[in-house]
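question for whoever is on the cluster today: can someone run the full assembly for these? three chains, 173 residues total. i dont have access anymore since they changed the login thing
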Amino acid sequence: MSDMRLGQKFFAQEVLTAAPAMVGKLLCRRFTDGTVLRLHITETEAYNGEADLACHASKGRTPRTEIMYASGGKVYVYLIYGLHILLNIVTGEQEHPQAVLIRCCEGYEGPAKLTKVLRLDCGFYGEDLVCSDRLWLEDDGCLPKIKTAPRVGIDYAPPLWRDKPWRYIMIKE
DNA sequence: GTAAGGATTGGC
DNA sequence: CCAATCCTTACT
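^ ran it for u. tokens below:
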């Protein structure tokens, strides 16, 4: 059913709405051999604009953060610690830099483990989830209970931003 | 040009 | 606890 696929309207939501809404959705990846992997997203984090000092966009518009200024639905991937690729999904309207970090999926705890399994690399920077044939989101009707927590790995940010409850975790039943 | 540091992970 | 490993950003 193609109408399970999430479209522009979903990604155009503000990040504080989109990040919890992505928990429970299916992250879908079609590999070059044609096989498709579908994983329920179990944990996300919101990075919210230039004012958010934990968000990469707080450094302003740079070659790396440029994609966050695009309209929602684009992929923001980057190399961290020279070792790991992390997957983010841009949300909101154009010129409103924000993104959702996909931290965990069912069976894959950890943002770098996830991108390894999905075989995502820097070539996915800017990928459009609305029309891509190798990466997209689907809604299978799953409506999980969610709890919030502070974001991980941002000790460099001042408390005002470090302590924001912008991490969204699926509650296991 | 140079330097510092990171939205992590796995091993000791 | 700490190393791995390299790109991005800031500053000279």
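summary bc i know u wont read the tokens: The first helix of chain A runs from residue 8 to 11. The radius of gyration of chain A is 15 Å.
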